[in-house]
Amino acid sequence: xxxxxxxxxxxxxxxxxxxxxxxxxxxxxxxxxxxxxxxxxxxxxxxxxxxxxxxxxxxxxxxxxxxxxxxxxxxxxxxxxxxxxxxxxxxxxxxxxxxxxxxxxxxxxxxxxxxxxxxxxxxxxxxxxxxxxxxxxxxxxxxxxxxxxxxxxxxxxxxxxxxxxxxxxxxxxxxxxxxxxxxxxxxxxxxxxxxxxxxxxxxxxxxxxxxxxxxxxxxxxxxxxxxxxxxxxxxxxxxxxxxxxxxxxxxxxx
Length: 254
Hints:
The chain has 254 residues and is of the alpha/beta class. It is 48% helix and 15% strand.
């Protein structure tokens, strides 16, 4: 991976940050964007030889500026990882705000579209590339109280399958990863929102997540990064068009 040129959206925190760290540790050249300016500044200080920019993945101009910087910094791209997404609201469908619905789909789907559209032009020229999209176990199941999130993540699975067909003849592999409940600040906020929407204690929500998984455990950002490492290794060279669950085997979403 030492010669890989990698672009990651939402790369300054959470899962994206762990993925970026793994690639940097292998000697790859990494460019990230994130919506959090403080996280970007922290990343720049720790990894001064990388490209890190503040950009909202739903803003086409900001993303175009990021891609221009990537072109100059990387001179091509080998791997793109679409990590940007939001949890969205937790409510019954009749209680949802339309703007919250649109924001959830825009961040996950529109942001992914902008990234892949840019990357495809470079990867087709090179006749190679790896595209990783981040879906969720919610992209494989229905998800009560979280319909915008589930719809967005199902859309990622459909986009994965379609892009694998479109790009495979040019040697480009496209897969999505479907994490389960990932430990961290983001999931803490999800638990708080769901507990409030359902009128139950937060611990019950946490217990429900664990009980719905065969291995009776949460997953970590490292588990997701390890799957990407596998897909970008010689062992993963023939894997494309797949929605790969990293979730301890979700039996149901309650």
